[in-house]
Amino acid sequence: MRDVVVADSTFYSCCACDIKRKDILFRFLSVYPFFLGDKISDELPKSLVNEKNFAQLVYVYNFDYFQLIKPFFGRNPRHINDGEYEAIGIGYMLDAQGKLRFLILDDRRPNKFAKRHFSLLGPRVKGTIGFVQEACCEDHRISQEHALEFLLEIETALMSGKKQRPCSIDPEICTAILMPAIEYIRNYHVNA
After folding, report:
1. 110 and 149 share a domain?
2. 74 band by pLDDT with thresholds 50, 70 and 90
């Protein structure tokens, strides 16, 4: 059954740091199995990683993912320890096992890298916003209320201007992706 989620650190940090709503993160962690590795974990706030609820709700999956992506890696070698590439490696392994539902990559370069070099992952690669929309409207694992709450928190963080690019979202992404997703979720449940 394809229900596993692999996310880079941006998804976790969005909830825990940018919108400061761990309850939203734990809601997602309780309805999907989430896998991460040491590199992703190292990028997260220690207060989150050391939290008992977090440790109980995620699965740690470690292997030398870089050997998998090495033939395709054209970036500066200093990026080999980026959590996004670990997420791609873990996602690839779980997809080969028929388990991966979503690979959440918010940064454009790793997102395109995964789609270009691992084409079978393409349909599973989403950003945070796409993941929330599909978790709500396709998988029905998150209620409309909870999906909208999360996306509206992201919008509020962006509009407040307190942090540049909260949840890796800038005004362009807000207009092109966030606002249409909010509208889609609202209308989906009206028309469903």
Report:
1. no
2. low
169 pLDDT band, cuts 50/70/90, is confident
Q: What is the mean pLDDT of residues 160-168?
A: 84
Q: Are residues 76 and 153 in the same domain?
A: no
CA-CA distance, 133 to 86, in Å (whole number)?
A: 24
Task: Domain of residue 181: give its range.
Answer: 132-191
Claim to verify: residue 170 and residue 95 sit in the same structural domain = no
Cβ–Cβ under 8 Å, residues 10 and 106:
yes
Token pair, residue 76, equals 């500066």
**What is the CATH number for 81?**
3.40.50
Read off φ and ψ for residue 60, nearest 5 degrees.
Answer: -95, 125
Torsion angle of C-alpha atoms 50, 56, 58, 60, degrees rounded to 10: 80
Q: Calculate helix-pair angle for 144-160, 22-31, nearest 10 degrees.
A: 140
Cβ-contact 2, 99 below 8 angstroms: yes
